[in-house]
Amino acid sequence: MEKREDSVGAAMENKRLTIFGVEFVWLALMGIAMAFIGWVAENAVKIISDGVMDSRFHTLPFISPYALIPFAVHLMLGNADELTLFGKKVFRNNTAFSKVLSNVVALSMICLAVFLGELAVGNLWDICFGVRLWDYSNLPLQVTQYAGLIPALGYGAGAYLLFKFAYTPLLKLLRTKGNFRAAKAVVAVLGTLIVADTFVMAMHIAVLGEAPMLWQICLR
User: Fold this and answer.
1) Start-to-end CA span in the chain (Å)
2) Digit-coded pLDDT (tens) for 37-74
């Protein structure tokens, strides 16, 4: 009986949900990490520009849209040195020139994604609920108050560096050395809390017509 239970457990362990060869759990774990890094990055910008640190409209120190980045990166980029699109290599030959071109394209795509993402999310909240979550109007080369060249290049460059020097090697380390069951538990718990936190924020905006600001620290 014990052998049968062990074989069933092993079979279920082998039936892991994967996205183009990478387990969903590892991507979700990286997404949670990115949600936290996004919260830290936005507060770092706020501190430098306004001398203020705040909750960034969330109860937890996670900004959920950033959690989608690892999934988008995996689907659209794969590896900075060997660009892939939905699991297929963009450049057939792996040469020094193709690596440079691959990195240039990856950086450009990430900056474009930041620009379009901010433009879409900012305008979506504005149109649906009349709430302005951020404002780039005081920056040069902005496109509406929600997107601009400077934020796109700044956040995009930072995201590219994380992608090339942290994301890819860390994902490889997790897949080879990580504890899958522990990762699954972390994703289940924190993932649920992050989704709930985002839902509460959305309901607060929809009902009260303003983004929740739970705390704010003035550093100047």
Assistant:
1) 67
2) 999 999 998 898 889 999 999 999 999 988 988 898 88
CA-CA distance, 145 to 163, in Å (whole number)?
27
DSSP 67: G
Long-range contacts from 181-187, C-beta under 8 angstroms, 24+ separation: 183/25, 183/26, 183/29, 184/25, 186/29, 186/32, 187/25, 187/28, 187/29, 187/32
pLDDT in tens, 136-174: 888 888 888 899 999 999 989 988 998 889 888 899 899
- Measured CA to CA in angstroms, residue 128 lies from 185, 202, 203 at distances of 35, 11, 12
What pTM did the predictor assign? 0.79
